């Protein structure tokens, strides 16, 4: 009789994430403008915001599943909404990517989300 070694493997989710080394974590900027697009996909919900001066910002928000648990869905924000985003900029001044989002606000109806809390209507 041949006995083969048996190894029990368990599969568990791993909380892997990219580095924030390209983000100026010590800085916070506020961008106001028109929401051009909402990409509600993994790994981050991405907002595309056109600022009044013509600059286009790419905002890497949070993972979709986390936002849904907080009440933010695919239909919460819409292209054309005027929003304000408070987040950390890229270390590269030419890169218009914002990360580590602290707040997203839509003034038209007072809706806002802030980091670490529930959605506020």
Structural notes for this entry:
The protein is mainly β and 121 residues long. It has a single domain (29-114), classed as Nucleic acid-binding proteins (OB fold (Dihydrolipoamide Acetyltransferase, E2P)), CATH 2.40.50.140. 5% of the residues lie in helices and 36% in strands. It contains one helix and six strands. The chain has one helix at residues 64-69, and strands spanning 29-39, 46-50, 56-60, 82-89, 97-106, 111-114. Strands 1-2-3-5-4 form a five-stranded mixed β-barrel. Strand 4 (82-89) and strand 5 form a beta hairpin. The longest helix has 6 residues, at 64-69. It is globular and about 30 Å long. The chain starts with 28 loop residues before the first strand and ends in a 7-residue tail after the last strand. The model is unreliable at 4-17 (pLDDT under 50).
Layout of helices and strands:
Layout: E1 29-39, E2 46-50, E3 56-60, H1 64-69, E4 82-89, E5 97-106, E6 111-114
Number of strands: 6
Assembly form of the protein: single chain
Mean pLDDT: 85
Low-confidence stretches: 4-17
Helix-strand category:
mainly beta
Summary keywords:
121 residues, mainly beta, OB fold (Dihydrolipoamide Acetyltransferase, E2P), 36% strand
Task: Write a brief structural summary.
The chain has 121 residues and is mainly β. Helix content is 5%, strand content 36%. It contains one helix and six strands; from the N terminus they run βββαβββ.
